[in-house]
Hints:
Layout: E1 2-19, E2 25-45, E3 49-53, H1 64-76, E4 81-87, H2 98-113, H3 120-127, H4 133-136, E5 140-144, E6 148-151, E7 159-164, H5 171-181, H6 190-199, H7 210-216, H8 218-229, E8 233-237, E9 244-248, H9 251-264, E10 269-274
Parallel strand pairs: 3-4
Antiparallel strand pairs: 1-2, 2-4, 2-5, 5-6, 7-9, 7-10, 8-9
EC number: 2.7.1.148
Active site: 9, 130
GO molecular function: 4-(cytidine 5'-diphospho)-2-C-methyl-D-erythritol kinase activity; ATP binding
Amino acid sequence: xxxxxxxxxxxxxxxxxxxxxxxxxxxxxxxxxxxxxxxxxxxxxxxxxxxxxxxxxxxxxxxxxxxxxxxxxxxxxxxxxxxxxxxxxxxxxxxxxxxxxxxxxxxxxxxxxxxxxxxxxxxxxxxxxxxxxxxxxxxxxxxxxxxxxxxxxxxxxxxxxxxxxxxxxxxxxxxxxxxxxxxxxxxxxxxxxxxxxxxxxxxxxxxxxxxxxxxxxxxxxxxxxxxxxxxxxxxxxxxxxxxxxxxxxxxxxxxxxxxxxxxxxxxxxxxxxxxxx
Length: 277
């Protein structure tokens, strides 16, 4: 049996530059994996089976993990299958890339169990624009529709607190709300973001999707305000939401802020995390 950690990600800035004629969006985003995430157990088997613990999710081709496994097994010409258990610990539809990370970890695990010359990045991209990022194992600048990845190796250690009030937000809706306003943005200032992260000051990043989400989900604004009130800085929504985060000076401050938030909002999902750059 192979155990694989499937890390969450956040966007340390997400700029949507515009929309293409085919409806896809041009992005400029600094994506970083975190120390929190889901976990997969995978072992060889005669057939492909999936079980999900921790969430009510389908276990057939409607599940991205199942589709990833099926795609790899077919591409590698494997006659057998795999028994997969997905331990879901991240909230659903939360802007943390959980499904994409689970799919990427499935590909990596099966590549260990059934080695082949399958082009993993191409297979990952066929499953979703965010899936290739999770094959890298580190921070990256994502451009294009998210498929053009440039590894970023010089980010400082960053401690943060994640908070999710329970809303499930469709990425399709978040992008549609942005399209309705046309409030597209300029590229992120990567050097300024790096310098601010290293100095522990307010980070000059933004999320192009945030305004539209706030207009439809007041709970996300409540989450951002609560993170700031807990003493965290540079609060931002990750991806299409609803998870938000705030940066801390160090792990001790992150732990204290998370404890205060969990006590004030016991129904929220609140976690301390660190950027795995």
